[in-house]
Amino acid sequence: MTTRLLLLADTSRSEALGAKLLQGAAQAELAENDVAVAYLSAVPAFSPSMARLRGKIFYRLADRRSWEWWGFQRHLLKRIDALRPRLVLVTGILPLAPAVFEAVHRHGGRIVNYLTDDPWNPIHRRRSFLANLGLYDHIFSTKQALRKRLQAAGAQSTGWLPFAYDPDLHRPPAADPDDPQRFGVDVAFVGTGAAERLPWLAALADVPGLRRRIYGNSWNGLATPGWELHGAVTGETYARAISGATLVLGLLRQANGDLSTDRSYEIGAIGGCGLYKDSEEHRALLPDYPDVGFFNTPAQLREHAMAILADPNLQANLRERGAAAVRRPEHTYAARLRTILEWERASASAPDFDSRTPIRGRP
After folding, report:
1. Domain shared by 60 and 103, yes or no
2. pTM more than 0.85
3. Where are the beta strands (DSSP E) in the chain?
């Protein structure tokens, strides 16, 4: 038995990267029986030991690997022997035992990673994952600037493959007949709390009469005067939060080396009016977007935000231009999966194919 793709990714919720890739499998010409899924994380649903204090202590001492990690490696080796996958696709910073790579190659398969975070960021750093870098046949990174460091750390081959959007999740929401004004704020930001984001948010904190709201986790302990705090939003609620705000901020994470994020695609796909941190990737994604839709400094963020908020016609223009730029087949997760599968086909069909040759993923 040979399986086309073994996906090592979270598919437990629709917003997870694995679920978005799996959703795009049909458009990438993969039949249901072509794909198998396996995954492990420190979330208690996957690692019950993490629900207990001693499990959390073990996790910290064991290089951020839960007690269940070792059993998962054994389970994974059995699945690889049974499925003989042509391609194993790992998403993110999931450490694997060297025997896993050996098993994939022994059966003639390839193993690649779709890396959406910086593995050297202290939040994500795991020595066991960094030791894996040289064992992958190819690493697709959402961060162009990270490729040189990946190669210096031993990666055989790297390519840039940016974020994307899921047409089933990221679309204009249906009207909310129960509470149409529930998400009607002037300015919204959706994202996880981080100190580096505070100067950008502070740029609008003292504007009189402006209703400002943050959606996301980990903001406790961070000073966000003038901003309402709201928990994380998902699904239709997420779409309403973006669509219902007059203006949505598209910030980047310097600590992660971002030039674009998943939100960069999702704001436009949902039909939101975005104001984005100026970057090469944002400009390429939104080629017809006016300059007022980008900012470089907190002062410029404030200036451009006030200009947009004062002009309903400009707001409508930004919504239309953002949607037209993003809602394209080449910006979907199905397209990202096709790029990964094309790499696998090239490596399998060419007798002299060198997996160390850098291949840039097509956005």
Report:
1. yes
2. yes
3. 5-8, 35-38, 87-91, 110-115, 138-141, 158-160, 187-190, 212-215, 227-230, 247-250, 274-277, 294-295
Report d(CA 25, CA 43) in Å as an integer. 25
Can you say how many angstroms the Cα of residue 185 is from the centroid of all Cα atoms in its chain?
25
Q: Is residue 105 part of a domain?
A: yes
Determine the pLDDT at residue 180: 63
Give one word for 184, left, alpha or beta, with left for phi > 0 and alpha for psi -120 to 50. Answer: beta
The number of folded domains in the chain is 2
Query: How much is the pLDDT for 182?
Result: 82
Sign of CA dihedral 189, 191, 257, 326: negative
Asked whether residue 139 is domain-assigned, the answer is yes
Judge if 58 and 158 occupy the same domain: yes
Could you tell me the CA-to-CA distances from 75 to 71, 97, 99, 100 in Å, in that order?
6, 12, 12, 10
Task: Name the stretches of the chain with pLDDT < 70.
Answer: 1, 177-180, 350-363
Which pLDDT value is given to residue 174?
Answer: 86
pLDDT score, position 181: 73
d(CA 289, CA 271): 14
> What is the rounded CA–CA span in Å between residue 212 and residue 104?
50
User: For residue 212, what are its two tokens?
Assistant: 């400002």
